[in-house]
Structure formats: C-alpha cells, structure tokens
Amino acid sequence: MSAATLAGLVGSALVGLGLYGLIVDPQPLRKILAFNLIGSGVFLVFGIVARRGAAAGFPFDPVPQAMVITGIVVAFAASALAVALILRLHEETGQVLLDAEPPAERPNEQEAGK
Amino acid sequence: MSVALDLFSIVAIVAGAFFFFAGSVGLLRFPDSLTRLHALSKADNLGLGLIVLGLLPRVESLLGALKLLAIWALVLLSGAASAQLIGRALRRRGGDE
Amino acid sequence: MSVLQALDIGLALLVLAVAVWTIAAAEIFGAVVAYVAYGLLLSIVWVRLFAPDVALTEAAIGSGVTGILLVTSGARLNSAGKASAAAPPRLSLRLSAAALAIVAAAALAGVILTLPDPGPTLAPEARRELAATGLGNPVTAVLIAYRSFDTMLEKIVLLLAVVGVWSVAPDRFWGGAPAPLGRANPQGALVLLEQTLVPLGILVGVHTFWVGADEPGGAFQGGAILAAMWMIVMIARVSEPPSVNSRWLRLALIAGPGVFLVAGVAGLGMAGNFFAYPDGFAKPIILFIEAFMLLTIAATLPVLVAGPPRRSPKP
After folding, report:
1. Does some domain include residue C120?
2. C178 by DSSP, 3-state: which?
3. Residues with pLDDT less than 50, chain B
4. Which residues in C lie closer than 8 A to residue A11 (C-beta atoms)?
5. Does C250 lie in the same domain as C143?
6. Which of C47, C54, C151, C173 is most buried (CB neighbours < 10 A)?
7. Would you call C189 and B77 a contact, using CB atoms and an 8 Å cutoff?
C-alpha cells in the first residue's frame, strides 16, 4: 500500500472521527476542533489525488495542492469567524452551549448593543 | 572517509533519538509539572543538537549547514523562553498537577 | 516491508491516535494542544505525499495560527467562569453518530481504494506553461498564474471573514480596538523572545515568500510567519492591536485583493484577456502581486485572532 493510499485512508478515518466529534460534543469550541479535523481529512484525500497525478516530471499534480493551500487558509478564516460568534454568544447570554431555546433576557443589564 | 562520516551521523542521530526518548519518558514518569518541564527542556534541546550534529556531514553546501545550526539556535531560544513562561505560570497557579 | 513503509504506517497510527485524543480529551485546553500536535504530525504526512508547500502551510496556518486562535478563545471563555455543565450526550446519540461516522469514513475509503489508475492529472499542462510564467515552483504558478482568479476570490473571502469578525461587536464599540492579546506586565522571557525572534522571523518570512517562486514557499507561508511575528509582538505587549478604524490597517487588508484585481483588469489592456499576463513580463507582475498578498495575509491573520473591538473608540 503506497504512502498516498495510506494517507487517503487516514483522511477518510479523520472525516469519520471529526463527524462523530461534531455531532456528539456539546461545547461549541470542541465542535470547531472537530470541524477542523473533518477539513484536514478532506485535504488528505486531495493529497492522494495530487500524488497519484504524478506526471510530466513532477512527482505530484500541482492543482489539487494549490486548492489545499487555499482551503487551509479559508478553513482558518471560518474558524476565526465561528470563534468570534461563540465568544459574543458567551458575552451576551453567559452560556457556552448552543441551546435550542433563545437566550433569556438578563433584567439587570442594559443591552446597548442590540 | 565517507564510511566514517556515515558512522558518525548514525551514532549522533541515534544518540539524539535516545535523548528525545529519555525526555518523553521523563514527561510520562515524573511526578509533577515542574520536573516534567525540566526533563523536556533539557533532554529535547540536547537531542536536537545531537541530531543536527549528525546531519551536518550530509549537507551539500555551507549554507545548508548554517541553516541547520540556525534552526537549532532558534529552537533553543524559543524552547528556553517558553519553558520560563510555563514555569512562571505553574508557580503562579501554585499547585502541581 | 521496507523501513519507509513501516514509518508511514507508524505515522498514520500516530496521527489517528492524536486525532482521537483531540475528540476525547476531557478539557478544552488538552484538546487544543492535541490539535496543534496533530497539525505538526500532519505536516510530516504532507511531506511524505511530496507536498512541501502544503506541509509549510499546514504547520504555519493549520496548526500554528489556529492553535493561537483556539487557545486565546478558550482562555477568554474560561476566564468568564466555568462552562456550565452540559448533560453528557445520550447513548443513542453517540451510537447513531458513530454509525454515521463509520458510514461516511467507509464510503470515502471505498472511493479512495477504487480511484482510477493512472489518475487524471493536470501536471502535463502545468509543465507546458511553466516556462512562460518564468516560475520554477508549479504550485505558485497554479496559485498566481493558472488559477489566479480563485486565489483573488480567496483573498476576498478572508476580507469577508474580517468584516464578519468585526461586525460581531456591539454598536457602541465600533471603531475601537480589540482587547490586548497578552496579559499585563509581560515577563522578561517573553520580551526577550520578542526582541530576538521577531527580527529573525521577519527575515525568514520574507525569504520564504521570495523563494516561493522557484522552491517550496510562497506568499501564504511567508505571510503566516510574518503574522506570527506580529502576534508575538502583541502578546509581549510591545504594541497593541490596532483599532478597526485605523487607515493603515484597512489599507493593508485590502492591498492584496486590490492589487490582484487591478493586475487582472490591466491584463485586459496589456495582454488581451482578463487576468492574462503579458509575455516575458509575467514573473515581475506575479512577484508584485504576491508581495501585496504577503502584506494582506500578514495583516489579516492577526486581525482575525485579535477579534472584534472590545472598547469604545478614543474620542
């Protein structure tokens, strides 16, 4: 089994692991971690496609690799936005979980930013 | 001559790996955080130094050798600074864990 | 089984073990540390896949900057009080999630094991046009020459993320500065690190960008290193996060996509096509665009980590 196939299988296992973590863990920060795991698993699948595209003197196909580089940067940007939303949710409501009910009004505070 | 250089590389790299292993054993076996920090910072820096030493005969140019030494110096610097910061934070927190 | 194969299998098992630790760690800080270690191990996997540019990006952005983001946000969440204990997920939820995860992983693994051989590839086309661009690194050529429109749109996505992060602030804070990244009274070790590491880091970052034309490297990797250096400066409290109103910050943020767009539109006049580069002049234009991309990435990543403004603007 070549390194590329092994990496691809690791990537699929990571996608499964991340999916489990995303659904099961109630804390939003852990969900972001699991989401990043899914993302890096998908990038590993791109990696095996790039490696198998070795031709014309290159040991890899450069197009999927460029897509992975773009993807890593965008995944970080998405994580940053999600973290900002979680922190703001925490500041507004005091809770750190994503609950189904809308947050209760805090009667002794003025929400000037609503 | 090249056989001697290869032997030197192998010995140095194996010694470096042994020091890394010793540092990890210290991380797992020492009783509290400060002693673990001590094990990690000392053993890992020495291990990296030995590995860099073992890689030096294999570089193609002087610039490559200088880059390897610069990597070791930077790791030494950042490792020392972060060990200081972790130690200070541990002492501030008071207990051991 | 050769030594290299044993190394690959060992690495794969280690990556999976650290990923399981990320999901199963008891405390959020342990999970984040495991994720950073996972990112570094993944960089080694990328090297085994013959992808040094991706390995550099994963180590710098995927593991490093994301780690800083998660650690600072975890600290902010913890400092405001312990997380309210959630009811642990029911066993039925765990089982159905595990079943879904196994089905997804198995489907993906099945696809990987049945990929066509030899795989479809664009490497011959990439090789053919590489001489015209004057570059030696095909990944840089793909990013800035062949698929330049995608890269420009990705810079705009980064800009949208910045706008999103800034908009999360309450109205009364708009125009102010984000909270400082480090704690007050930084210790001597941190200041020493900032004074010695940051100049070297800036050199390494610019060198990584410059060398990316012909060797593994490029604007993303170099920009991530420069961003990390700015973050060290802010963590050591030598300088504070700039307010969202500051003009130079906003100019730095739009410089990358702006110059990219101007170069693309100028291609209409100079080379006859949107985002085409004139013959023989491609490499200078590419490096020019990449320099501004470097500036934007070095400015955007710390802004995303610093977060929304948390104090009213100075009058």
Report:
1. no
2. strand
3. 96-97
4. 108, 112
5. yes
6. C54
7. no
Q: Is C299 helix (H, G, I), strand (E, B) or coil?
A: helix
Q: Which residue has the tokens 């020492």?
A: B30
- List the subunits that have 3+ CB pairs under 8 angstroms with C: A, B
Length of chain A: 114
Residues 78-97, chain B, touching C (beta carbon < 8 A): 78, 80-82, 84-85, 88
Q: Is residue C96 part of a domain?
A: no
Question: Given an 8 Å threshold on Cβ–Cβ distance, is A62 in contact with C122?
Answer: yes
CB C123 within 8 A of CB A55: yes
Which residues on B lie below 8 Å from C187 (Cβ)? 84-85, 88
Put simply, the answer to whether C45 touches A44 (Cβ < 8 Å) is: yes
Do C268 and C160 share a structural domain? yes
Nearest to C187 by CA among C237, C241, C229: C237
Q: Are residues C143 and C74 in the same domain?
A: no
The answer to the question of residue C263 being in a domain is yes
In the listed set C59, C78, C97, which residue is the last one of a domain according to the structure? C78
Q: Is A14 in Cβ contact with C77 (below 8 Å)?
A: no
Q: What's A103's DSSP letter?
A: P
pLDDT tens digits, C163-182: 999 999 888 888 888 888 87
Domains and CATH numbers, chain A: 3-93 (1.10.287.3510)
Nearest to C157 by CA among A103, B36, A71: A71
Please indicate, yes or no, whether residues C71 and C177 belong to a single structural domain of this protein. no
Measured from the Cβ of residue C2, the count of other Cβ atoms closer than 10 Å reads 7
C65 and C204 belong to one structural domain: no
Residue C43 sits in the same domain as residue C178: no
Same domain for C259 and C184: yes
C143 in the same domain as C51: no
Spatial CA neighbour of C213 closest among C143, C309, C113:
C143
pLDDT tens by residue, C192-217 = 889 999 999 999 999 999 998 888 88
| pLDDT (tens digit per residue) in C98-132 | 999 999 999 999 988 888 777 777 877 778 888 77
Mutating which of C193, C208, C211, C215 best tests the B interface, going by the most B Cβ atoms within 10 A?
C193
- The total number of structural domains that make up chain C: 2
Domain of residue C13 covers: 1-78
**Alpha carbon distance B27, C79 (integer Å):** 28
- Asked if the structure places residue C155 within a domain, the reply is yes
Complex confidence, ipTM: 0.91
Stated pTM of the model? 0.89
How many residue pairs from chains A and C have C-beta atoms closer than 8 A? 293
Last residue of a domain, one of C31, C49, C78: C78
> Are C77 and A112 within 8 A, CB to CB?
no
Q: Do B81 and C200 touch (CB under 8 A)?
A: no
For A49-65, the pLDDT digits (tens) are 888 877 767 788 888 89
* Dihedral of the alpha carbons of C145, C149, C153, C156, in degrees to the nearest 10: 70
Q: What does each C-alpha distance from C199 to C12, C188, C193 come to in angstroms? A: 36, 17, 10
User: How remote is the C-alpha of C225 from its chain's centroid?
Assistant: 10
